[in-house]
Structure formats: structure tokens, C-alpha cells
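Morning, I've got a small favour to ask if you have a moment. It would help a lot if you went through both lines with me. I owe you a coffee for this, so here goes:
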Amino acid sequence: MSEQGWRDFLNADGLDDWVVLHGGAAAVFMVSSLGEAARLAGAISAVPGVAGAGALITIGDDRVTVRLTRGLEFLDARHPELARKVSDAARVAGAVADRGAVQEVQVAVAAAPEDIDVGFWRAVLGYRELAPDNAVDRLGHSSTVWMQELSPDKPLRHAMHIDVSVAREHARARVSAALAAGGRIVDDSGAPEGWILADRAGNKVCVAAWPDGSMTATVDETSQQAAPSGR
């Protein structure tokens, strides 16, 4: 597991259907009925390499969502070709990819290092461990919980915020929609990779075009950068 896997995925050819989110590579394929969604899910599950790879497929009346991994760090050299084959199966079925429908919502629970308590969150939510600093829904339906260490220099002892990971070309539109709904920008110094917004009460949310928007950066440049949420 390394950063190289998801960086290589971002720079691979033939992956226009796919968005690299905090949780890995995902795609949404639009269909006209639940029956079509079920048939497409079956076709995708039959793609060589999908079974046993840790992929997550969910269906609805109008879409099939495919996540190749449950974590960004699990993307590796096999995934670009696997993604192409999944896209091919979707095209054969007449499904259309919609990058604007791809997103991931993550709850960031921040605390001083000595107060990090990921075990509590796994237990109370019924989640499982994916990485040492997080907890994930066993069903794959709900938001990941990520434990963020606060700097010892900060007087704040605990805090929470929401991370919304979207396709790079849709991040600004999401920010604009939030502002139109009454939100405000707290910090846009990380734009266009990410913006920190707040509602009227001051509750914060990070809209992140990261890592999907990192494809033009080199490994050396971005290895020193954090995600907009501080990850």
C-alpha cells in the first residue's frame, strides 16, 4: 500500500468514468430501472478480477455505483485495467457514467493525540477497522469516520467536521451551491483542491477535489501536501 497506486490511477489513460475520492476510485453508471441496475451489477461482478478484490457495488432505481476499493491506499497496479473492464461492461449494457454523481462524505473527529479514541467510534457505530485511524461501515452505505489529530499547539481539545470528496470538475459548483444556500467560505487557501466552508452556526465542512484534482502534480510536489481536511 502506498501513494503511488492512486497517483498512477489518476494518470492512467481510459479512466474518464472514474473519480478518485478519499476512499479510492469510484464510478456511477446511470440506468433506466432497478432491473437494469441489477443486471449491470451482475455483469460487473463477472468481470475477471472483480470478485475477491474488495470492490463494493451498490444499486438503485437509476444507478449502479462501483467502488474498486474501500480505501485510497489500497489502489494498486491492477486497478486501472480493472476499471477499464468495468467501464466496458457498463457501455455494453448501455449505461452512462456520471462523474457528477460520484462523491464520498467523511466525518472527521478531531482530538489531541492522547485523546484519540477510534475504538469507541467503531464500537458505538458498529463499524470495522480499515486503517488504524478510521472506522468504516460494514454495509458500505454510511460515511467513514476518520480520526484527525489536533496540533498540540491548539487550545481546542476536540472538534468535528464533514469532508465531502467530489470530482475535480464539480468542486466549484458544489461550493457555489453551498454559498447560495447561505454558507460562507472560512478558508480557500487550498483551492482549487479544497475549500473550508461553514454554515451560519459555524459548523465546518471541507469540499475537496482531492485526490481527484491532484493529477497534474508530481509525487515530489504533493507528498508534502495534506488533504484539505488535514489528512
User: Anything to note?
Assistant: The chain has two domains: 3-101, 103-213. The first strand starts at residue 19 and ends at 21.
